[in-house]
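Need residues for this backbone.
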């Protein structure tokens, strides 16, 4: 019995899928070493605080590979992953922040600089995924509240509708928003 038949189209399809999956795993950008190296000493101490004993402080300036495996297993580095390295949420949040900068550069840059100063970061590329989510939400709320009077039409309704603000939480699949910002899924 042959395990793989190169003439069988189904076997070739399975092989293509497995090769694509292997390439994706090999090209994965997430690296615990890189996340650990990008963390500040304070963040490393905070991450190591999950360890009950005093041994955690000795690993603050160590490389990730030098930390014992049992301590590595206790540390959750996902909270410290940079937004530019997170292919899903982080990059989407950064894209939203950059779109807000294009739409209203004065207000957006003012808010972003204040946020970066508060969290002790120097640029958008150095913020974590969690920080990018907070910045994105805060930025859009800040811009919306700053321009709430200038964005109203004659009927008093805002022209920039957000479907998440509706009582149901989201529009139905059959809804097509042409006048507002949301254009559908």
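Answer:
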């Amino acid at each position: 019995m042959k395990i793989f038949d190169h003439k069988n189209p189904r076997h070739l399809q399975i092989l293509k899928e497995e090769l694509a999956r292997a390439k994706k795993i090999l090209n994965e950008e997430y690296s615990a070493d890189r996340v650990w190296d990008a963390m500040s000493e304070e963040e490393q101490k905070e991450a190591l605080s999950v360890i009950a004993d005093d041994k955690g402080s000795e690993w603050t300036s160590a490389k990730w590979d030098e930390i014992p495996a049992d301590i590595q297993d206790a540390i959750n580095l996902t909270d410290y992953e940079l937004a530019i390295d997170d292919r899903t949420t982080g990059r989407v949040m950064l894209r939203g922040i950059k779109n807000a900068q294009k739409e209203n550069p004065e207000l957006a840059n003012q808010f972003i600089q204040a946020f970066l100063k508060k969290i002790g970061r120097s640029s958008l590329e150095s913020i974590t995924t969690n920080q990018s989510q907070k910045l994105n939400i805060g930025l859009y709320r800040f811009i919306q509240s700053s321009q709430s009077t200038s964005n109203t039409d004659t009927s008093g309704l805002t022209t920039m509708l957000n479907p998440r603000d509706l009582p149901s939480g989201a529009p139905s699949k059959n809804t097509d928003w042409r006048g507002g910002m949301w254009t559908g899924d």
